[in-house]
Amino acid sequence: MMAKRINQESFDDVVKENMGEFGMEAQEAIDDAVQQFESQGVNLANIVKDASLFGENGEKVEHPVITAINQLKISVDNSDKGEIIQILKKLKSECDVDLAKRCMAGNNDAYTVLLNAAIKHKNDNELLKEILSGLISLTNGQPDVLDEAGCSFLVENLTTKADDKDLLVTNLKLIRNTCIKHESNRQLYVKKKMITELVNILIEKKKEPAVVIEACGLLRCLTYDDDVRVPFGSAHEHAKMIVTEGNCLKMLLELSQEYSDNTSVLKELFSTMSVVVVRDEFCKAVMDMGGLDFILKALQNNLGEKGIVKQALGLVKALAGNDDVKVAAVSKGGIELILAAMTKHQANAAVADLGCGTITRVVLRNPANCAKVIECQGHQVILQAMKIHVKEELVQKQACMAIRNLVARTREYCEPILELGAEALINTAKTNHKSCTDEAKAALRDLGCQVCLVWSWRVWSVCLP
């Protein structure tokens, strides 16, 4: 259930009442108001709580963020560029402080003022960049302020401002801000053909690392399913569109090869590829174009780079949804590389999580791949990850799934896994992490250990063996 919220005016009225009727000092009045609202379950993250904004009798003093907005309204038409930039920087610095000040700015027409200024000065790239930077600060954590006019303007900039690298990067960052946790905005951008624009940018500006990084980040953002207000998003559909409308797989692979020596860009390309291979044929296509060979080689050459290791593991995991890719990955030394990465970065929970998850996917319904993991002592590496990251819920869950898949069709591996103390580790995971219960019980069941299976829709359970 979403927390209750109030507006700034309601909060300020309570503070003023505390000061006027109960003789409290400003800070005391604010603290009391905070306590009152929080006791009622109100989330005050969007509320400015600044004692300097109240006079002796509780009268309000204009907040600097509102002053900056009012100054910008006047100066955008009548002042020189230097003065406008100074006001923009003041507004940006206020918005960068916290979400509460950004909300105050948003509630006092900051978005409309900034957008109108951007449209008015769209031919002045220096000033436009400063305005868009202000919008980046404003929209951080509050993408709701975007409207269709702003969406159209930003998409248009992807074409009209493509020759100015810094301005293009700023524009991409702003669009990304307005997409995070906002499904309607993402769908609006897609309807305005932004996917095609982004693909064109990646092709035309492929020599610009900063542009490639931001464009990839924005493509990934279109595949997010992070808006709790929407029951069903379009993440899967957007991922398919990125591949089918832009021939994106081939382009991403070619860019990866061009940036094979630049790990900062390469990890972004791998991360983007991993979120768009959402269909079986997409995974197969990547392999057929030589992508699997390149990814494994990149992993081998960059085993010391955590960023590349994490993204390469995530990409192999995504591609291994295809059965042919599973077989090919193992035949090309993929298991050895996965285990080497997990061993080298055994203290890193994210690598342990992704490593276990990749093994889970690779050995699923494939006894030959299970045999290879056991041959390479992969079960030891998995259990070692469980010991090291006993408090990490995701690692424990993925490790339980990996163990379950290793023995589900090859019960001869139960004994060597149990000899290493798997049962106790899995039971610990089940006890410590409620979300691991199903995975832990499945692993215990297939290992032949004692486990009670409860059907949530029935009133009885079965204990095995």
From TrEMBL:
The ARM repeat units are at: 290-334
UniProt keyword annotations, A-Z: Repeat
Q: Say if the entry is tagged with keyword Repeat.
A: yes
Q: Does the keyword Repeat apply?
A: yes
InterPro entries named in the record: ARM-like, ARM-type_fold, Armadillo
Gene Ontology biological process terms, A to Z: hematopoietic progenitor cell differentiation
Q: Which PANTHER family does the UniProt entry name for this protein?
A: ARMADILLO REPEAT-CONTAINING PROTEIN 6
Q: What is this protein called?
A: Armadillo repeat-containing protein 6
